[in-house]
Amino acid sequence: MSPVSDTKLLVGTGKGLLVLQKKAKDWSVETVHFPGYPVSALLADDRNDCWWVCLAHRHWGQKMHRSYDQGKTWEAIPCPVYPSGALIKPEKPAFLKKIWTMAGGGADQPDTLWMGTEPGGLFVSHNGGDSFELVESLWNHPSRQREWFGAGRDHPFIHSIIVDPKDSLHIYIGISCAGVFETTDGGKSWIPRNQGLKAAYLPNPNVEIGHDPHLVLSCKSQPEVMWQQNHCGIYRSTDAGKTWQDVSGKEGFPYYGFALAIDDEDPLKAWVIPAVSDEMRIAHDMALCVCHTNDGGQTWIAQREGLPQEFCFDIVFRHSLIRQGKLLAFGTSTGNLFVSENDGNSWQVLSHHLARIDCLAISSS
User: Fold this and answer.
1) Per-residue pLDDT, 5
2) Count of domains forming the chain
3) How would you class 325 by CB atoms within 10 Å of its CB: exposed for 0-12, middle for 13-18, buried for 19 or more?
4) pTM of this structure
């Protein structure tokens, strides 16, 4: 693992991309890119050191850029296009509304990239991102038009993509709202994996499809261990998503939230940042904290040192908490940026005055 001093922190805000690096004892902004434009997704691809930035222009729609020299130069890349005849619902043509996430293929697929979008389309590229095509098998899944729906958005969206490090054809995706889906054949077929989840907002909370996983991750060293911060609690699976167990905190804290980080080596470790509820999206008790577990969610510890503990209205969105080694970083809805270099035991504020932070990425040189 590279030391923190060799690490760059990419911060995607509502007004551009910032790149920070630690020099001596202090973190500082090294460069700013795409000033004034909202960043919707980031990927620092450690397979080829390529940085991907997706922009959400309010007037021109989605735009994509990539850089192979850490932002010194950028290349504009055509965005994926929904094919003619693709329908969100009967008589409603599909078009790209937002890019939510990108993920690289396995080590044996150096030119493969996956992309999750709104309105619920999964795209794949087999030429390093020069072009993308819709994964028709998922788009045509019989549940999509009947049982998928938007969560705080007009349409469903794919926000989580997990490629099994031991098998590149084995992939999970997280959809709001539908749930977790799995493919074992590289996307030719898909199976919902939501047993044990509860959808408290539906008449039947035990439905197979219709769940709202806010973020889904798996442990790199033991990919059969999966975590999700769900709309209805925190869940963990130890059997590769076949069943899920509620590991929310006692007395409802932590429970609701968006962000999630886990340890790459230890499947028992995870971090979440709780919020009050879907109706009241503010910090719990108006005090910002990170909750950490060392025992698979049996107990949770509130980590507060260095974080504001009164009159705090911040929340942290799904892609705005990130971890690498001992480094944790998160950004908030009001533009506050925090880092910890000791697994969250103490926090340092890097900025109080950024635009809303929607995504983070870490790049190690």
Assistant:
1) 63
2) 1
3) middle
4) 0.96
